[in-house]
Design a protein that fits this description.
Layout lengths: L4 E6 L14 H16 L3 E6 L7 H5 L5 H25 L4 E5 L8 E2 L2 H9 L3 E5 L9 H11 L4 E6 L20 E2 L1 H7 L6 H9 L4 E5 L5 H6 L6 E3 L1
Parallel strand pairs: 1-2, 1-6, 2-5, 3-4, 3-5, 6-8, 7-9
Antiparallel strand pairs: 8-9
Helix pairs in contact: 1-3, 5-7
The structure holds uridine-5'-diphosphate (UDP).
The site of uridine-5'-diphosphate has 24 residues, from α2, α3 and α5.
Length: about 230
Amino acid sequence: MEYNRILLKLSGESLMGDKQYGIDEVRLNQYAEQIHEVAQMGIQIAIVIGGGNIFRGLSGTSKGFDRVKGDQMGMLATVINSIALSSALTNVGQRNRLYTAIRMEPVGELYSKWKAIESMEKGEVAIISGGTGNPFFTTDTASALRGIEIEADAMLKGTRVDGVYTADPEKDPNATKFQTISFDEVYKRGLKVMDLTATTMCKENNLPIVVFNMDIYGNLKRLMQGENIGTVVK
Ligand code: UDP
């Protein structure tokens, strides 16, 4: 097996499916089934979900929200998404445990590296919500942080594109995809794989990033079986 322990990052927006806002239950269930399949292969999985489908702190400032309060709303949005995923995982028969960066029992347990690892070693999927618990960060950075903390073999960024391209493939028909690319090349080309804070954390702590299309059913499993379906940044 290519990976024993992974950190899977899902954006909040991906949970919307074809909707304009909130959570699409069909998409959510597809994710839950895919995650369950991979967990059954014995792979240890931790998950960080964004909150962009509900609220982003920065966009709140234009509506008059204080940035820190807006970011707190954003972090709570990631908890809402995580509760939804926890419920969907339970529905497909996948044991899981919800952790929160900020204390809010009984919604979830306060996160610690050791509790999350213990969960994964017992066969539970660890959903790590609430971002980093601090404003001015993103869930990309939270996934980098948690991935490094739990000693994941890679951070998998599930998106709606199948990897990292020379240009935005949704805008430029001549864009070509990288199989692998170095962190230095990502900086040099100004590619937006993740935000710079997250990218730098992964680079400095040797955590490879795998960008792949999570919306194609079965891709997560294919990736785990070693199929070359995304882009590896290392
Ligand atoms: N957020 C934060 N600190 C963190 C992670 C997230 O303040 O450590 C807030 C921030 O306002 C962000 C929102 O939560 O806009 C939702 O996260 P993000 O934008 O990363 O979600 P995604 O784009 O992945 O859906």
